Structures
1.
Amino acid sequence: MTAVAAISSSDTSARANIRFVLDGEIVELDDVDPTRTVLQFLREDLRRTGTKEGCAEGDCGACTVVLAELDGSGNGLSLKAVNSCIQFLPTLDGKELITVESLDLHGNGLHPVQQAMVDQHGSQCGFCTPGFVMSLFALYKSQSDPSRRDIDDALAGNLCRCTGYRPIVAAASAMYDIPAADDDWLRQPHGSGVSVTDRVERLRQIARDSSLELHHGKRAFFAPRTIDELAATLDAHPDATILAGGTDIGLWVTKLQRELETVVYVGEVKEFAAIRESDAHLEIGGAATFSDAIPAILEHYPLLDDMLSRFASPPIRNTATLGGNVANGSPIGDSMPALMAAGASIVIRSADGSRELALDDFYHDYQVNDLRPGEFIERIRLPLPGPDTRLHCYKLSKRFDQDISAVCAAYRLELEDGCVKSIRIACGGLAVTVKRATHCEQAMTGRPWTEDTIAAGMAAFARDFEPITDMRASAEYRLRSGQNLLRRLYLETRGDLTESVYLYGRHG
């Protein structure tokens, strides 16, 4: 059982294992189970039952909370919605936790987000409502005039079986018209509000200068602060589980009931999350979240917008990392086909040094990759496109938002004088690993960009994969879809298809 050592806004001299802010007060925790979730802590330890458990895998959004951290300047706040059901408690260290109970306006009424949900009849059974409120709260604090697409995206990680979403979308627009104080919107027990200045100061008080190390029985949790320290920690604990966003590892605990003996958390290594650009590459740190990486990628590859807008949901993108997605190596991981088609490589680091490997060569079998004990993906090197390079990626799934792909196919195409100068094709979901369609590429390279070439490529595509059948799609569907997506690429490049997947069938 997690022990609450102290809850105090003034007594911060005693150094507890974990320290974070809740409702304006500094919470200190001792003897923490490294894989206890934030949701368990809220509901079972604090009895804050507004946050609900629905799926316990980051899919339904009923458990959504908001985390606040100091921004890059150190003088402001950065807020993000996260799924508390798969967020491990030690990762709260140095942050502020905001739950639906926090939106109290110090006892004087509902927060504008909550009032808008009431006014627009956005709640029926009410189970999902706290999660929607927190996702809308994150939107409320980050954008002052969101578009319909911004609203849809903000709600992509929240499921409701009652309302049909229309009144919730209406609440998202109406919440900005309800007056509220700009800063004093979070409660504390004594009835006064907590200003942004106060909250920044509290986060500064709990900022950690040294690495976090927790022990709970025979289990351990390490949070190094530099790349070198991370490499040394993994060298000392080569069998440790590397934790980034927890969007996969969280399910190992909540669904598979696995007990992780040693966890090494990479979220405190700031340099590990850096995104830089050289003359030839976009260099994305292994711990960069998708929320940070996606804008940088779209700046160079804007045609990936449709696929990346459907990559998980904001609470997942706010914590999931590009390096973690690549290292996990799921055949249905949506980032790898685009990266592989683009010709990306990965820099692998350990205490012994670094090595670079083409992403094509990283995967050997189902979730078997080239990482050795003590190694981690330090950064992903994405080549910058040439003037004639097009990178397209298409995702097929049963649900538009927040769903796992049946097929995800990516194409890097260069045409010259009406012929295929080069083409790289990578697909996920078709087989046990993400892989290149090399026979298809060879059948098309050097040939005119015509229907005959597409037909040849579609025929060769069948030689590249042995598709699988599962609950998402049959092998026949996957093969036929993979072939037809090549035709879609052809029609788009000819200008015959001009409407995006997102806009198809939508109005406004």
2.
Amino acid sequence: MARCLVTGGAGFIGSHLTERLLELGHEVVVLDNLSTGRSENLDQVKEHPRLTIRNGSITDPVLLGETTVGVDVIYHLAAAVGVKLVADDPVRTIETNIYPTEVLLRSAAAAKQRVFLASTSEVYGKNPKERWTEEDDLHFGPTSRPRWAYGCSKAIDEFLALAYHRKFGLPVVIGRFFNVVGPRQVGHYGMVIPRFVEQALKGGPVVVYDDGEQVRCFAHVKEVVNSIIRLVETPAAHGSVYNIGSDSPVSIRELAHEIIQRTDPAIQVEYLAYRDAYGDDFEDVRRRVPDVSRLAATIGYTPSMTLGQILDDIIRWKRDQLNRSA
């Protein structure tokens, strides 16, 4: 069994990854400053004898160095995430996503540690292809549009990780997430499904930004976590980039109606212009659909839960949360 460090381990994906690693018998160290993560995400395992939780930021090089000592595998999930957070504070996005990653990669290369680097579909920018493959060009918008700061910062992370692999043989895997969803995800930072579900369970309306014809794919966090672990444990995956997510597209308008049908068909949909949600300088991507054939070929597995199964799980979880707080 391995000793694993999960940066951002109290976050949405990080907490599910932490739980799964513990289930598999590994020892886990979580590093999280709880800026977007939440301590309650780890409530089910916080007393686990193989779990250590360190409260602090990856931007603290001393703390980051301490937590990497004696570690076999680093799952680097800590980052400034969410469309709203990025739009509101691009400086924080850049500072959080680039420098700490370089420090971590340098340390991991010296210690011969395996690394999983969490990246994002945002690196594709405005690429016009129907489906994005890992070797496609990156098409960012102008620097005057803050929303591209996130994708650019994670692209730099990827360049750094691949450079360390080529120069030092670092066994690193890069995963580009496509709309990972599930229990514990909150809607504060622009995540669409938890926002829609909470609005619907509170009686509506469900607020769709722009015209609702944006196309996305949604994968359940448990299947994404399984993909992450399999990639890290597959030597042939090291030094490569992988799209991780579902490849079943749905429009945001259709998503809103799916959620309404599962909660209360009488709920209304309202539309809100992007400028009113994020400001005048916001720019969005109309279609975001991955090609996951590389993932399938490498680990023999891709996320496959249907949208209906995913929504039912999230609605059940959120309804329980609202009932507890009532």
3.
Amino acid sequence: MNNYIKVCDIEKYYGTASHVTKAIDRLSFSVNQGEFVGIMGASGSGKTTLLNLLATIDRVSSGHIFYENTDITALSEDALSEFRKHNLGFIFQQYNLLDTLTIEENIVLALTLQGGGKKKIRETCDRLLNLLHIEEIRGKFPYQVSGGQAQRCACARALANDPVLLLADEPTGALDSRSSRTLLETFTGLNQKLGATILMVTHDAFSASYCSRILFLKDGKIFHELIRARKPRKFFLQEILDVLSLTGGELPDAQ
């Protein structure tokens, strides 16, 4: 497999000279094309900071992040904006849909921002609605659908630019257990059938058990890694819970 993302010895500091907080401490890892990687850790471990750095929302204090041959740490703000627009897809805990637009219109808007003719936009929108199994709610507004359906719309919108990487920040945090399972199965389908590369930050062991690999953060460093391989998900879930119990991580109820 090809390394899509390569993180090389990055550090991130916050604060002033008199009071500096090191959020990320000389962190290195890579993500291969087609991987579904989870980032876990207790509050304050650095997982959200890491996601923001990978998402080009924040900049490293030192080190480098490569997307294939592009060193995003060397790009200007304008170049970063263009890179983000054409290469990254984002899925957030709170969906971030526009309430004044229908489900379909939210997706069409994202496609329009990418450019292309009306016919192509319509065809792509129809494909995404079908792919995410939300074609029956295309004419409804976000407040008229369930949280799980809204999150699948957000997922469709994130796929609008055919991203190199899907970045998901606690995507099941606002969902009930049934909707969480449906969304995670959707991620698995995107990963296995379309070869989508996904990086998901989560505190939830059940959600993480759908990943193919998990990096555990503590004090801004990777202290452990789990690889699912061919293990049944319930065994992988237990391994995750075991690591969290040993490290003081958050232990939500398994679903």
4.
Amino acid sequence: MLVLPAKVIVNPVAGASSTRRKWPVISRLLNHIGLPFDFEYTEGVGHAIELARLAASDGYRYLVAVGGDGTVNEVANGILRSTNASTTALGIVSTGTGGDFIRSVGISRDYTTACSALTSPRRLSIDVGVVEYQSKGQTLERFFINAAGVGFDAAVVRETERLPKFFGGTIPYLAGLVRTLVSYKNKPVVVRVGDEVENCRVLNVAVANGGYCGGGMRIAPEAKLNDNLLDVVIIGDMGKFELLKELPTVYKGTHVNHPKVSMKKGTHVTIESPEPMLVYADGELLGECPASFRIMPLALSIVV
């Protein structure tokens, strides 16, 4: 039987376009560890989804994403939309600015270490979230593997996308956060988690599969990637100065002790608002509410 090599999907503009510079080194590392591979560059937003879908459907059983959280999300979406999702594994070399998913899954941020693990026989089966949202009058769906949500965080993602990404990690997120703080207003929502309904005014609602977002914020400290549940973190009607005061606690995960923060777990979540409210997933802005979220248990295999 013919065994195809791995398909490596490289986003050259990830990490403030540093991935283009790093790729020759990463390529040599992959050769050094003895991983046979073909590679393709992505050419724009959404391209990695199609590259990954075609590769998985054409018989590649191992896809490696080289880029940031957005690239990993797109490659995962491509695998999950393919005809061979259940038999295709995902490897990750993180070269982006955030690196939130790899924090949850335990993959090294150092790309030399990450490359050396790509020939590991170990696989971690993780749950996958599905978000249904509105965009330009259409109802669309997107898979997410780390975290999604609505409200303030989505507005921060919008501002962050407008900023030049000269720095990695937390800095672009914090710059977007400061810009969002100036004009953002909390919004009324109806949140349904299973049979439980909550009407409230919120700053933000996070629907998490993994624990981290925003370049290291531990938004859902109890989240597990393979517990068949979504962790819903509702940050209530918190004011701007209150938010700034509490911001350091989000990095520790102790924000969940604040009286205006509540946590729920479930397999199905819906969020509606009478006001326009943005939706994001895995650091990418998608569209608007109403939105629904559900879990697909153990739907993706990660090489660790």
